[in-house]
Amino acid sequence: MHSVLTFIADGFEGRAFLMAWEVWGALVFGFAIYAEIAIAKSLAEKGASAASALAFQFGSTNLVISQVCLGT
Question: Which residue, among 25, 31, 26, 36, has the nearest Cα to 59 in the 3D structure?
């Protein structure tokens, strides 16, 4: 009986870790996108062209994706 309960507890711990990992990744990505949008809006308000603001936004999104996926 003890080994069955240990097996179940180990499964819950493993699943909890994987779920936390997936949620953390989504939160980081979501917050990064909102931050990039806010910075791009601020740049546009300070006189940057729309093309420059959008280039910053897309460029920084690619940087975040490469850091999260590749670990660089």
Answer: 36
Per the CB < 8 A criterion, the answer to whether 56 and 39 are in contact is yes
> Can you give the residue range of the structural domain that contains 46?
2-70
DSSP 46: T
User: Is 53 exposed, middle or buried (CB count within 10 Å of its CB: 0-12, 13-18, 19+)?
Assistant: buried
d(CA 49, CA 55): 10
- What confidence tens digit (pLDDT) does each residue in 12-58 have? 777 777 887 788 877 877 777 777 778 888 888 899 888 887 777 77
Tally of structural domains, the chain:
1
